[in-house]
Amino acid sequence: MKKVNLFFSLLFMGLLFVGCSSDDNGGNNPGTENPTGEEPQPEEMEKYVVTATPLATEGVADYILTTDDLSSGSISTEGNGIEQDGTYRYYVTNNDKFFSLLYGQGNPGAVTTYGLNSEGELELLSDFQAETVQAFEAVDDDILMMKISRSSDAPFAYWYRLDTNSLQIAAEGQINTQELADNENGEIAFFSWITQIDDKVYLPYFLVKGCCDDRFGTEFPDEAHVAVYSYPEMEYVETISDDRTSFIGRYFVNGLTADENGDAYAFSSAVATNAGEFNSTLPSAITRIPNGSSSFDSFYFNLEQASGGYVIDSHIYAGNGKFVGIMQNKAEMTSAYGGGKEFAIIDVYNETFEWVSGLPDPSTITTLTYRNNYVSEDGKTVYVGITTETGSFVYNIDVDGAAATQGLEVEGGVITALHSLKASAE
Amino acid sequence: MSLSFRFFILPIFLLIVSYASMAQNATLSGTVFDDNQVPVFGASVVLSKTGKGVMTDEAGAYSFQNLSAGTYKIQVSFIGYRTEVSQTEIRTNQANILNFSLKESTYNLNEVTVTGKSIVQQVKDKAFNVGVIDAKNLHHTSLDLAHALDRTSGIRVRESGGVGSQLDISLNGFRGNQVRFFIDGIPMENFGSAFQLNNIPVGLAERMEVYKGVVPISLGSDALGGAINIITNSYAKNHLDFSYSYGSFNTHRTIVNAIYVSPKSGFTVQANAFQNYSDNNYKMHVDVADINTGEYFRDQTVERFHDNYHNETVIAQLGVVNKPYADRLLIGATLGKNYREIQTGARVTGVFGAWHRKGNIIMPSLKYSKKNLFTKGLDVRLNANYNLGSEQNIDTLNRRYNWFGQFREYPNEGGERSYSLYKYKNNTGIATANFEYNSKDRHKFALSNTLNTFDRKGDDQLNPDNNQYDQPRKNLKNILGFGYTLEQEKYNVSIFAKNYFQQNKFTRRIDDENYGPGYEYVDFINTFSSLGYGSAASYFINDNLQIKASYEKSYRLPESNELFGDVINLQGNIDLKPEHSNNYNLGSSLWVRLNEYNQFNLNASGFYRDAKDFIRPRLNNNQVMLVMDNLGSVTSLGVEGEIRYQHKNSLNIGANVTYQDLRNNTKYEAGQTTESVVYRDRIPNMPYFYGNADATYTLALGPKNRRLSIGYNLLYVHAFYLYWPSRGSDKLDIPEQISHDLTLTYFFNDNLQFTLEARNIADQDLYDNFSLQKPGRSFTGKIRYKVF
């Protein structure tokens, strides 16, 4: 139980169960272990946390709502919900705490933290100030956050280790991203996201020029790199590289997830650009770093081939080698920053790819939750928030059947995150 | 200036009627001047024995014919001036000439207006809903123009902080640049940061005209919600006065007005100089984050530590007055500079400790005006100015500050907001031309044109290659208006039409998605041209009750700063479209004179507007800067009321209150087929219920007209929500605000005054835009001395 060996997609992880659970999805979080050693109360309160932003041109804030059911019914932001100061918010859960981060582009912002009380209500635990970061993830009992430079003049990525017990920054440091990239033309490394595997964090990165009116362009579009650091010391261990795919993950998007065995599956969208042109010659594909290995193995799953010309936008790990992939038609792609609206079940054990049925026509979808989706305990259902021109719903994707049904309606808002939170054991 | 005095004219009171009429062949004539030797139009001149009374014409002249010889008492009175009584002997067969020079009354203009019945006969000149603030009554205070306006019905001033901070004035629910500002009829926009309403002392102004809703053609602008015209002192004789004040937060303000006029040649030199300095180190109640751990220390009281502001400005003009070819022909320049430290971003969580700005204003100007040019009744006014001043943004320390003033410094180059030494010139120019023709049969035609130009050029020595600063940022705006007014005894009707034209030239990166690559810049030109029109009318039901109504289809063009940013906390939005609206106003005024000593004045008005592409400030997505945006459709229904009571000349009490119901009228958001959840919701982050109350009591104290005046002002703003009111249950709001101000003024004599002022006595937390805090309790002492 102490062993945190399983890391799913980023939002998935914080909301897992207190030590009593023995489901094979694992993800048990040591931080939630009852310090007294007593078993937690069986009737412990749990709520789904749904965040929504009203559809309006201005004056919008995110509202945090709670519900007991994602598969039916409706909730509304009308006269309901905790107002979050500011629109650009990101969420992460860990240690029975729900963190709401303001993205303040270069300026520090307040992070608000909520817990669930025994009445099932959200309770403000604390605010603290944090830098605007481009990657954040629950790691052990911490939230590891990274503020990553996009300028080759100042090639530093700052990391901050937020202790979720004291709710303070416990440690921080910096990584020279130019030295890490070690390229003759001075391109720097930009971490796409953070993935914990055992006592290390894996940081896939892409190369960017960080200058010259093409900050996010690169002349090295056909390489994948993952920098590995020890945790919590954040000491550099090694870089694992591969030349069968373009980089892993994308700006603000996780591309690396370990299954129950600790084997890490790496998703490449193949969306590198140079001077505004896509320049990767390799297809969107999945590769693998076996547990504890210093290199990729021979596993290679060509997603473009399997999907008929689609690239992976982002993914959600359900369990047992099955991922929900959000796919984007490569022919219609205009920017390197996502926008996929079609869902598929990708099974990396059997190397199968199946489109999910029962979802709204992609042309009617205005927004969906690319991150912050929720996976049921048994890994059989993945919940995603989809807003179409007629409203917002939580869709319940049956992973085995590759079929979705319309669930909870969220009135008066675009769904921005789906989480689950348990009343704190304290 | 005489225009508005027409407004306040006194009735003729026939005081004493006496007997006797003898050989009637004598005449008496003369001219009435004010104490600036400006002819007074509309003064009443009453000849006591005969009971005859006349009014002075536009040249201040009066005359009586067919008088008998003898000794007469002549009484001359005019609103705002002391009544003069003179005795003279009139002889037959000669031209008896008697000139008068009226002295300004120390009473307030408003007080006197309510006493007069026939005020109405002059007020009817204006079909517009106009209020006048007599700035002279406030010259003893340390107020700036913005805060003087803040005490007026329907007006709310919102600022980001103390002296020199950014300013936003709302008038009947319209705000920002929906309301236009003028100095002597010249648009104030683009004057640069050294010359804004909240850093101009009230002493520079003689009066302020506040137009609510429809604005006369003569102010030819695209004002949508109204306009405020600051009339500066235009003495036509030698004058010198100065004032100095010192107060809390190390605030110093000085103002000097000096005027020389050669009586013979009409040559004149005028100089206004003023200075503001403040540390603005008032207390803030904030949560302070530990600079290392991020932990918040709750509810700390800290001083602002990086908010020094100062500006120094001289307005110098020379030219001639009262010449056959010009009533006024002045060339001059406004020269000034300012320095401003920037303490916060758009929200208090963003705190800075070194970032600052410098700016200057170098603005040559030309003013010309002539009444009865070429032909009687044709008045011409021409103005032009060009601002050569520059502004610089200085942000070169890569630091992170907290509210304790602690900072961390990072090793590499960088800034607090963004590494910058950007220096730029806006190259703004304005030219206005006004022609007005008054026919004898009370038809009035007005033609006006206002041209604005803007061409921002700048560079940043830290980023010399950064070509985003080198792109064309140009803006040309022209507003041409024509109006016709019919003035009748009981009513007055005006119709007008305006053409709005704007052309913006700019460059855009085509691939500019989320820092997307690509350095292809493409030039764009946006052109807008549209016709607006409207009508205004007023009617006297009886001598004491007037109603006014107006309608306008109006456009409000985006400002240069709104399009291109102000390089501080306002982000540019080149896609901003003109806002257009239909505005309806209905108002009434009632004058009640209970008896000689007790008078009331009541005003009530209502307005309705529906605006499309409503231009509103919002926080940009990451809460760091404000950005102006078109926000679909908004309706505004409001009422305001004002009541004023006067007892003799010693007590004056008034209160005003404004309620406005601003509702989101956007039924469907883009891409949605279901009704918006915030359709008909109240527009957030906007005060909607507020008011003022004030009382002034003056008592004689000691000999020689020495007086003490005690003034009290109350400001009330109802709480309002930061975000949409209908959403959420646990909400952020800006709490109710109440502020009490007290002013004590001792008039030692007509030339010397001392003032003590306490603002926000209860030391309440006052907030403004997006909950930025304003100063708490403050004290100021002021001395004002008029040399001659």
From TrEMBL, chain A:
Keywords: Signal
Keyword Lyase: no
Keyword match Transferase: no
Signal peptide segment: 1-23
Compositionally biased spans, kind Low complexity: 26-39
Region span, Disordered: 26-45
InterPro entries per the UniProt record, alphabetical: DUF4374 (IPR025401)
Protein's name according to its UniProt entry: DUF4374 domain-containing protein
Organism: Euzebyella marina
Automatic annotation (TrEMBL), chain B:
A GO molecular-function descriptor: siderophore uptake transmembrane transporter activity
Signal peptide: 1-23
Pfam families reported for this sequence: CarbopepD_reg_2, Plug, TonB_dep_Rec_b-barrel
Membrane topology listed for this record: Multi-pass membrane protein
InterPro entries, alphabetized: Beta-barrel_TonB (IPR000531), Beta-barrel_TonB_sf (IPR036942), CarboxyPept-like_regulatory (IPR008969), Plug_dom (IPR012910), Plug_dom_sf (IPR037066), TonB-dep_rcpt-like (IPR039426)
Domain TonB-dependent receptor plug, first and last residues per copy: 124-227
Keywords assigned by UniProt, alphabetized: Cell outer membrane, Membrane, Receptor, Signal, TonB box, Transmembrane, Transmembrane beta strand, Transport
Cell compartment(s), UniProt: Cell outer membrane
Transmembrane in keyword set: yes
Residues annotated as domain TonB-dependent receptor-like beta-barrel: 322-761
Family: Belongs to the TonB-dependent receptor family.
Protein name in the entry: TonB-dependent receptor
Native species: Euzebyella marina
